[in-house]
Design goal:
Largest sheet of chain A: 4 strands, mixed
CATH architecture of the largest domain in chain A: Up-down Bundle
Oligomer: homodimer
Protein name (chains A, B): Maleylacetoacetate isomerase
Number of domains of chain A: 2
Strand content of chain A: 5-15%
Structural class of chain A: alpha+beta
Radius of gyration of chain A: 17 Å
GO biological process, one term (chains A, B): glutathione metabolic process
Strand order of the largest sheet of chain A: 2-1-3-4
Shape of chain A: globular
Enzyme class (chains A, B): isomerase
Number of strands of chain A: 4
Keywords (chains A, B): Isomerase, Plasmid
CATH topology of the largest domain in chain A: Glutathione S-transferase Yfyf (Class Pi), Chain A, domain 2
Largest interface: A-B, 46 and 46 residues
EC number (chains A, B): 5.2.1.2
Distance between the termini of chain A: 29 Å
Order of helices and strands of chain A: EHEHEEHHHHHHH
Chain lengths: 220, 220
Amino acid sequence: MLYYGYWRSSAAWRCRIAFNLKKIAPEFVAVHLTRDGGAQRTEEFRVINPQKRVPALDLNGAVLTQSLAIIEWLEETIPEPALLPDDPWSRAQVRAFALAIACDIHPLQNLEVQQYLRGKLNLEQSAVSDWLGHWIGNGLLACEALLGSQPSNQAFAFGASPTLADICLAPQLYSAERFGISLNDMPRLRTLGASYADHPAFVDAHAHNQPDSEEWFWGI
Amino acid sequence: MLYYGYWRSSAAWRCRIAFNLKKIAPEFVAVHLTRDGGAQRTEEFRVINPQKRVPALDLNGAVLTQSLAIIEWLEETIPEPALLPDDPWSRAQVRAFALAIACDIHPLQNLEVQQYLRGKLNLEQSAVSDWLGHWIGNGLLACEALLGSQPSNQAFAFGASPTLADICLAPQLYSAERFGISLNDMPRLRTLGASYADHPAFVDAHAHNQPDSEEWFWGI
């Protein structure tokens, strides 16, 4: 199994956490998203994923894209440890939290959008920062509220063990820090961030601990 | 069961198709997204969904948000007719297609983003149209390619009956038309659009056929 990813892609990062939790290690193929216009935009990669995005999973020549689809597939084929609760309503709550990040925060901060804002729209850095602050800040505030009915002493978002919700939140918290978004009003999310920093599957999947990691910088 | 929605919200529309296919009829509560600053932004609605978005499903006071989480919950609690194939790899392909729309197209065209582009960034209509054309046009081209390995004579994206993929595609095709995006290079998507126009569950869920539908217009 081949896994096409990039150290700082939030979506690829989600998959890495899931691989670690499920104790599998697909062979990694680095797709450099920014060098020379982006390896994801080459004809060679377009054949793998017409969306020109990472992650992609190649299983004997058949390709699966989209981080949440990959993780749901892992969940169905390698059930333990479970990344979703047992009962349907709880599963739905975990998925809703994950989707609040994957659909309503991450798509507005990703590389391609930032390139459009800086390139085609010619926005100044301050306007790009306002954009990121708006979508990430308000999005994470909503996430904090979505956890309002959960006991605050849980190590993970929906219980004692990590779920799809945590898998999506961990890279998003990193992006928040990277883009200078304050988590002051989000005590629950800060506590979860501390849990992730202590969990081997999350630490190993961290952007800074990948074979293709580069020196951390704030630009895109 | 209460369903909070809005006639032209793509995400709410997805749920309506799923309700129809599963033959349930939750009581509808209209949330007008544009009148008086948007009913989704009131304190009253924030208690229902801190994301200030539709759809939301209220089941005896417990609330579930996010269209794909709602539909996966329906799939798990009302299995027939199935909206996902049986085998895990095929399920993943359907989910990947749905997510390519729900994560990579729709979030960049939705009302809140357009309001930001026009309001905070003060973009002219032509620049907003370019933005929509870029994300919707390229996104749907990728969707066309993602269906490349599917037989072209299927009535629906992944077979003879509708799946989560079709549920996400139908409202997105409407948005493409609304925003003037050409589907000339997407023969497969055009054929699928014709299937939806013929299927009662899709017709009944159409934006124009809702209790809160307003005269169709191109603005936001």
